[in-house]
Amino acid sequence: MTTSDRIERVLAWVAGLLWIAPLAYVFVRSVIVESPAGSRFGFDNLVNAWGAAPFGQYYLNTTLLVVGITLAQLVFGALAAYAFARFTFPFKNALFAFVLIQLMIFPEVFMSENYRTVAGFGLLDTITGIGLPYVASAFCIFFLRQAFMTVPNELVEAAQVEGSSRLGILWKVFLPAAKPSLIAYALVSVSTQWNNFLWPMIVATSDETRPITVGLVRFLAPETGMDFPKMAAGTVIVIGPLLAAFLIGQRGFINSFLRSGIK
């Protein structure tokens, strides 16, 4: 092992420790129960935090929201990417340029207009209203288009010879070939939407529609008192499912990213 390799390994370990230290502290703090008799390990903080807010409802809202948005993005993104990758139509390049421009604009820029649109449809304080601005993703279109462009023409011609329609070719040829990219994007979308906060906070005003990130902020509101062990327990409740999913399927997740080309 060369000196540069040793330095890279040391730097990687330092970066890893710096990344995991706050997370480890939150997990440890959440299971330390303080009492007049002293401190001990237990799950009392997690139980108390779970009972202090309707986290079950928040989990349900978040699951519906994340699954719905991710599926919608994949459907619309695949159809749009298929068109941009394989068909010729007027203003194709100009329209794709608009897609790329959207990647350079922060979503917060459209927040006021999105709010007026959602309010006009009467969808304020609904799961549909929270997810509506995210059903189409410029990054998804761009990402899947790049994956579809790598599909060999021979596979498309073979499907045409078999009599497949255009949608049939998409289903039988392009989607299977782009499976790693689909999985990789789905993981990015799930993580992004699970942690989304600002827009849901504006639209959701009741516990029946609040996702878990907004519910956590309500749980940690100043009027409830600043109980740090309970705050740590609430944070663990929020990040626990994603972290557990990653730890269980980390090999498959990493392989999907490597095969899709995401660094």
UniProtKB/TrEMBL annotation:
PROSITE patterns attached to this UniProt entry: ABC_TM1 (PS50928)
InterPro entries linked to this entry: MetI-like, MetI-like_sf
Keywords annotated in UniProt: Cell membrane, Membrane, Transmembrane, Transmembrane helix, Transport
Major site of localization recorded for this protein: membrane
Keyword Transport carried by entry: yes
Subcellular location(s) per record: Cell membrane
Transmembrane segments: 12-32, 58-82, 94-111, 131-148, 231-249
Top-level taxonomic group: Bacteria
BP GO terms, sorted: transmembrane transport
SUPFAM superfamilies cross-referenced by the UniProt entry: MetI-like (SSF161098)
Residue ranges constituting the ABC transmembrane type-1 domain according to the UniProt record: 59-249
Gene Ontology CC: plasma membrane
Topology of this chain in the membrane: Multi-pass membrane protein
PANTHER family registered for this protein in UniProt: ABC TRANSPORTER PERMEASE PROTEIN MG189-RELATED-RELATED, LACTOSE TRANSPORT SYSTEM PERMEASE PROTEIN LACG
Protein name in UniProt: Carbohydrate ABC transporter permease
Organism listed in the record: Mycetocola tolaasinivorans
